[in-house]
């Protein structure tokens, strides 16, 4: 705080360009200080971990989201996307294979588009993956031939199993669970947001595979689809993945599978195909969100150990706070003893001249109060009485977290 004020005075005396500039900097510093204080105290801020949540609410020990660069315009791949087709023949060759070994024709790349060829059979991505965000653009032939399921039919099969239908339904009715944007055989799209045939249509798909263990469904899997930016499937349960004519039933999927593009006899075009893998769900070992009791216990022990390790790099009050923080995640006899000792030393140090330690005292007192409130310390612990007495005697106003 003193350093901040000194800095401001120096800046002012050395002649800033204008008063406006000075106040702009002042505002910036105050904002920075406010944010710093929030971060500093966030350790003992939101509700602590519980039986199914390894993280506290607003937990700064939680990893920061990894930084990626978004695409320059919406629809172009972000920096962590895996590109399956970029419009070149090389990209087609590198990333795709025909499913049918005995065939007379191959899919083609013309003018940056990958085109389905009648008789070439389905196309499989060489990459195998499961839960993903998939971006894919397609265009039905501008020359209208056929009707119903026979007009501009292809399909995008997640893991080679569940089809998000590709069909020219611009002015072409068919059974709704076989419409463009349907999860084929399972769920019609909410609306028909198609452009006319010949124009490029965009799918943004979020897919989660069904996960079963020991014959029990842990997650039935689901699909969300945006067609031309319009949501047409909203977390639609997969119900086993969908079939032609037959009712599909709940079932597990393999761990990974290829993306499949369908040859349904119509020259449908594709371009700009990329995907990103999604974070693991808790049923697969992910540690974000609500977990099982056992997984929570394991994760909490891991977080506590990492905080205690960090505490070894610190001294005095900083070490004390880190050790106290670790107790929110896991009880540990050594950490309790070390924290007791450090807190006693801290109190001995600050009680002689409390004014110079005002912020530190309030901070430690708040941390103790937090641990007491959340049953990590006993309510009649003598330290809280001593700290509160110092605060009261000095007439400090304390904002409780
Ligand atoms: Mg199809």
Structural overview:
There is one protein chain. With 401 residues, this protein is α+β, with helices and mostly antiparallel strands. The chain has 3 domains: 1-38; 41-65 and 292-393, no CATH class; 82-282, Sandwich (Jelly Rolls). Helices cover 29% and strands 20% of the residues. It has 8 helices and 15 strands. It has helices at 2-13, 19-41, 89-95, 293-311, 316-326, 333-350, 358-373, 382-393; strands spanning 82-85, 96-98, 108-110, 113-115, 123-129, 132-139, 154-158, 162-166, 201-208, 211-213, 216-219, 222-227, 230-237, 257-261, 269-277. The strands form 3 sheets. Strands 1, 3, 4, 6, 9, 12, 13 and 15 form an 8-stranded antiparallel beta sheet that branches. It is elongated, with a radius of gyration of 30 Å. The two termini are 20 Å apart. Mean pLDDT is 91; it is low at 1-16 and 31-41. The chain binds magnesium ion (MG). Residues 153-155, 163, 165-166, 262, 264 line the site of magnesium ion.
């Amino acid at each position: 705080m003193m350093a901040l004020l000194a800095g401001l005075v120096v800046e002012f005396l050395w002649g800033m360009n204008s008063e406006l500039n000075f106040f702009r900097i002042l505002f910036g510093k105050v904002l920075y200080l406010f944010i710093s204080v929030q971060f500093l105290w966030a350790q003992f801020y939101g509700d602590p971990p519980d039986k199914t949540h390894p993280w506290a609410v607003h937990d700064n020990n939680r990893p920061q989201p990894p930084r990626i660069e978004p695409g320059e315009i919406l629809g172009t791949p972000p920096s962590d996307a895996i590109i399956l087709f970029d419009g070149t023949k090389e990209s087609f060759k590198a990333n795709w294979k025909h499913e049918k070994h005995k065939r007379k024709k191959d899919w083609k790349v013309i003018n940056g588009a990958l085109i389905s060829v009648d008789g070439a059979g389905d196309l499989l991505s060489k990459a195998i993956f499961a839960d993903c965000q998939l971006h894919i653009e397609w265009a039905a032939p501008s020359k209208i031939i056929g009707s119903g399921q026979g007009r501009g039919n292809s399909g995008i099969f997640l893991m080679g199993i569940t089809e998000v239908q590709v069909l020219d339904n611009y002015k072409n009715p068919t059974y709704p669970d076989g419409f463009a944007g349907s999860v084929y055989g399972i769920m019609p799209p909410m609306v028909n947001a198609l452009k006319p045939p010949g124009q490029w249509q965009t799918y943004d798909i979020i897919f989660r595979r069904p996960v079963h263990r020991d014959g029990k469904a842990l997650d039935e899997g689901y699909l969300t689809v945006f067609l031309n930016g319009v949501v047409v499937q909203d977390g639609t349960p997969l119900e086993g993945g969908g079939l032609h004519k037959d009712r599909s039933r709940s079932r597990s999927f393999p761990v990974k599978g290829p993306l499949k593009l369908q040859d349904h006899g119509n020259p449908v075009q594709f371009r700009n195909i990329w995907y990103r893998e999604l974070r693991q769900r808790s049923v697969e070992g992910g540690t974000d969100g609500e977990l099982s009791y056992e997984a929570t216990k394991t994760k909490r022990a891991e977080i506590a150990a990492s905080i205690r390790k960090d505490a070894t790099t610190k001294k005095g009050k900083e070490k004390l706070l880190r050790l106290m923080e670790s107790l929110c995640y896991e009880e540990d006899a050594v950490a309790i003893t070390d924290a007791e000792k450090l807190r006693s030393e801290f109190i001995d140090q600050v009680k002689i001249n409390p004014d110079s330690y005002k912020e530190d005292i309030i901070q430690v007192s708040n941390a103790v109060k937090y641990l007491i409130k959340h049953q990590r310390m006993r309510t009649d612990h003598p330290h809280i009485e001593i700290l509160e007495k110092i605060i009261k005697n000095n007439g400090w106003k304390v904002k409780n977290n």
